[in-house]
Amino acid sequence: MSTLPAETGPEDANNQSFWMPGNYHRTVKRTEDAFQACNDIVTCFQERARVERQYAQQLSEWSTKWKPLVDASPLYGSLLRAWQCFLSSADRLSSLHSSICRDLVSENGDRIRTWQKDTFHKKIFGGFKESQDFETGFSRAQKPWGKRLKKLEKARTAFHKACRKEHMAREREAHTQGNPDIAIEKQRKIQEETEKVRARYEKVLEEVTRYAPRYMEEMESIFDQSQEEERKRISFLKQAFLSIHRHLDVTNNDSIKAVYNELHNTLMSISEQEDLRWWKNTHGPGMPTDWPQYQEWTPDKKHKKGKKEVEQKAVMMERSVMIGGVRVRALYDYVGQETDELSFKAGEEFRKIEDEDDQGWCRGMMDGGKEGLYPANYVEVV
């Protein structure tokens, strides 16, 4: 679970070799390192989940802030709908990023925690059972090898000491004068002692060399078990990372694609001709007008009309004039909030019988004859 070691010289490489006594501890420690890595991964992506949540909240706040301002803006028609679509898209994206936050914590985080609990078994006095098992296996395999290495080192040291003693004796005799017979005898004894030490050193070395294959086999057997456990850990964490990637990769999220496709289609539907026609019919020459017409004089009727009858006649006359003017189509759904307001669905057609007032309301009449007020910017002229 750690990074690769830096390059070292031959001597350092030999001292750090897996085969040297005690160097298997780095392999055993991978279990603890993997457990800690799981903790770090969960913490890391919990922070990312908070980033997603904050982003979702900021999108929602941005949309809420601008919605009333956009609705009341001087833009109209398809251009206004396009601007409003940015805000509705932000609301949908906010929900999606909130979902990403939940998935990172509940799905990915819980999955890693569960696997961690099932894979690493803590001991009462610290450490993990898996680490202890590998430590015991390596230690048993290396114990006899360590003894042989110590024995070999002792024999080697004795041999080198004897060689050094012989060399010094030769140099000393070469620079002094004495009885040659005594010098030769002394030199012979030193050589015999050196040969004995050499023979012992070679014998111990032969024993070590003979035992090496068995030592290597036992160590590799434990190491392979450790490698298999590490392989399982790497495989699981790879799948965990892929799951996190799947949740974070918004480029392949169909819901997000749908949001931006709808926004793009709304922007592409901006029509100069449609918006200009709406303005012409709503605020320009296309507006209905009661042009002056010749009216024949008719004498008043003799009978006296009641107040109610006069009011009804006035309403019917007003209706006859305005109904012949403008037919409109609803752009959005609207549910009347008051008894004097109309309710309609997007695409439904009816007639406008009074122009927009200072508050942005018009009076209309449904095909069934129901009258009421409605927001002027919710319809377009047919």
Task: Write the SSE topology.
Layout: H1 10-15, H2 25-28, H3 30-71, H4 77-119, H5 129-174, H6 180-248, H7 254-268, H8 272-283, H9 307-323, E1 326-330, E2 349-354, E3 361-365, E4 371-375, E5 379-381
Antiparallel strand pairs: 1-2, 1-5, 2-3, 3-4
Helix pairs in contact: 3-4, 3-6, 4-6, 4-7, 5-6
Summarize the structure.
The chain contains nine helices and five strands; from the N terminus they run αααααααααβββββ.
Could you explain how this protein is built, in words?
By secondary structure, this protein is α+β, with helices and mostly antiparallel strands. 66% of the residues lie in helices and 6% in strands. It has 9 helices and 5 strands, in the order H-H-H-H-H-H-H-H-H-E-E-E-E-E. It has helices at residues 10-15, 25-28, 30-71, 77-119, 129-174, 180-248, 254-268, 272-283, 307-323, and strands at residues 326-330, 349-354, 361-365, 371-375, 379-381. A 5-stranded antiparallel beta sheet has the order 4-3-2-1-5. A hairpin with a 6-residue loop joins strand 2 (349-354) and strand 3. Helix 3 (30-71) packs parallel to helix 6. The longest helix has 69 residues, at 180-248. The radius of gyration is 47 Å and the shape is rod-shaped.
